[in-house]
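Per your request, structure below.
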């Protein structure tokens, strides 16, 4: 007898939860929506935190490159002065070497600066989206109370069903999907850019026999010497 009573109670409970014209059904629908929105809100907060970490790392890298470019520029200026005093080709070769390094780092610095700007804009947009999600979650309790209050009126049952259905198909899920795709793309591109930049720097340290850059460096060096004279 107890077994049949449990089965009947379970069937009755499931029936009420799926019935959007009952108080139980209304509460159940809002409960599902609230749980989904809470999860999405948490996921977005975690995503923003990850982007902030990437932003900080790129800022650190930008400042490192900035310091190195200043050091290389100082070495280049010293090479010109020493060559002017000694006329030794070793200072000319040294200038060419650091000219290439300096030029490469300046290019990297420009790219990272653009990345930092884009990341900052993304973070601001996602923080704004986070605020909107928080407001909607806060308003959900009020909407639930209104829906339950309205259920006593049979003339408003259709309006209640529409209200619940609109919550279920809310486009916030699509918004989260776009955010996750953009995050993955940003983090992936940042990682690839950093690896390419480091490979380029290592390559320049091992070899500076590229004809076009050497020619540019030599011409730049001679112009500095001639101007000094």
């Amino acid at each position: 007898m107890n077994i049949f009573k449990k089965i009947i109670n379970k069937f009755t409970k499931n029936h009420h939860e799926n019935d959007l014209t009952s108080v139980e059904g209304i509460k159940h629908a809002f409960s599902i929506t609230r749980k989904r929105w809470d999860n999405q809100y948490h996921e977005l907060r975690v995503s923003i935190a990850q982007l902030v970490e990437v932003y900080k790392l790129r800022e650190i890298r930008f400042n490192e490159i900035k310091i190195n470019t200043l050091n290389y520029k100082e070495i280049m200026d010293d090479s010109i002065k020493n060559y002017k005093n000694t006329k030794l080709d070793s200072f000319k070769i040294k200038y060419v070497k650091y000219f290439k390094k300096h030029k490469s780092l300046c290019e990297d610095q420009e790219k990272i600066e653009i990345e930092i700007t884009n990341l900052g804009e993304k973070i601001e947009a996602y923080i704004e989206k986070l605020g909107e999600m928080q407001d909607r979650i806060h308003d959900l309790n009020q909407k639930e109370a209104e829906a339950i209050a309205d259920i006593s009126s049979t003339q408003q049952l259709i309006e209640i069903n529409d209200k619940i259905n609109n919550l279920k198909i809310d486009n916030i899920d699509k918004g989260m999907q776009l955010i996750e795709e953009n995050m993955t793309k940003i983090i992936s591109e940042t990682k690839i850019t950093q690896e390419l930049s480091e490979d380029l720097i290592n390559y320049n340290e091992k070899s500076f026999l590229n004809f076009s850059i050497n020619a540019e460096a030599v011409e730049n060096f001679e112009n500095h010497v001639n101007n000094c004279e």
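Residues 1-17 have pLDDT under 50 and may be disordered.

Regards,
D.
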